[in-house]
Amino acid sequence: MLQSPKFLQPSTQFLPPPTPSTLANPQVQELPTSQSYSKFKQCCKFSRRQLTIRTNSLLLFLLGFQGGVEPFRSSEAKAEENENDTNSASICGDKNLTKRAFLDISIDGEPVGRIVIGMYGNDTPLGATRLANLVSGSAGISYRRKEFVKIMPGYVQHGGVRSYGVDAEMASRTGSNLEAQNLLEEWERAKEKCSGIKNLAGTVSLVVRDPSRPPPKQKLVARGGKLEIDEEEVKAAPNGTEFIITMKDSPELDDSALVVGKVLEGMEVVEKISKVKTVQENTSSPYFRVAKLIGDKRAVVAERGFNRPYSKVVVKNCGLLE
Predict the structure, then answer these.
(1) Helix or strand or coil: residue 235?
(2) How would you write the pLDDT of the chain (322 residues) with one tens digit per residue?
(3) What are the residue ranges spanned by the domains of the chain?
(4) Which pTM was predicted?
(5) How far apart are CA 69 and CA 200, in angstroms?
């Protein structure tokens, strides 16, 4: 067996003998023994672990001091932004109520209570006027004997009045216009004026647009012996008479509904409406997806029935309060 070379073998002849202090406390590392540090050596002894901890702490302190100005400034900026948002929210939330209306609700013919609504006539005058005219009947048609058509986890939706047939004829006698164009303009102004969630819990809003409405389909039509491209409306746009009452904050409605008031009394009645059993949504079904993809009208009809209550939830009576 080969022996290790001599120059690789450990040698202790050049090492000084260990001192008693080193043997007693092997973790202590003494500072250099020059005369300038003699006093410091006599009074202070640090282990390697203590030196590492204190050195790292000092470095972290210095780095934190140098880089701590910007985080402090950013925190100040965030605080100012939060303050501005709070002020904006307080301004948007401070709305004066000009009129009050009531809705008497029945479920399957059984009265369940009254909902009292306060309207923001100064902030959204067109929307508040539309709601007041439909509640009072001065528009030629009212919400009386009209049904709630959708019940969602966060809100309930009333079907409003139709912009065709008997409803439109009765409205035209009084000169009422069942269109949402002016309401859309007011919705755009309200959206620019106030940021943040507008459809908060307990608010009442009019449906003025459909954000999920698909673009019109193009089809060939024969006119005068020529083929022309015409556009077919896939779905009718809202006419600004359907209203929504929210039970919790519903930011998903901000892109389609104009807030015109809030519930003053009767949120327990809204809760009763929300507990009515509805048609289960079935958009995840592969059959529905295929039918929707190929444009089957049966899929469109089925989609309209999703979340519709099985029971008949009706506004039995409505009007304005003094």
Answers:
(1) coil
(2) 444 444 444 444 444 555 544 444 444 444 455 454 455 445 555 566 566 666 666 655 655 545 444 444 555 555 555 555 554 444 566 789 999 999 999 999 999 999 999 999 999 999 999 999 999 999 999 999 999 999 999 999 999 998 888 888 898 888 888 888 899 999 999 988 888 899 999 999 999 998 776 555 666 777 778 877 766 555 567 899 999 999 999 999 999 999 999 999 999 999 999 999 999 887 778 877 887 777 777 777 777 788 999 999 999 999 999 7
(3) 99-212+221-321
(4) 0.65
(5) 38
Q: Where are the beta strands (DSSP E) in the chain?
A: 28-29, 46-47, 99-107, 110-119, 148-151, 155-158, 203-207, 217-223, 226-232, 243-246, 257-265, 313-321
Give CA–CA dist 273/281, Å, rounded: 18
Angle at 282 between CA 281 and CA 288, to 5 degrees: 140
User: 121 in helix, strand or coil?
Assistant: coil
User: What type of residue sits at position 310?
Assistant: Y
Q: Which CATH number is 99-212+221-321's, of 3.20.20.70, 3.30.565.10, 2.40.100.10, 3.30.110.70?
A: 2.40.100.10
Residues with Cβ within 8 Å of residue 298, at least 6 apart in sequence: 291
Strand order in 99-107's β-sheet? 148-151, 155-158, 243-246, 203-207, 257-265, 110-119, 99-107, 313-321
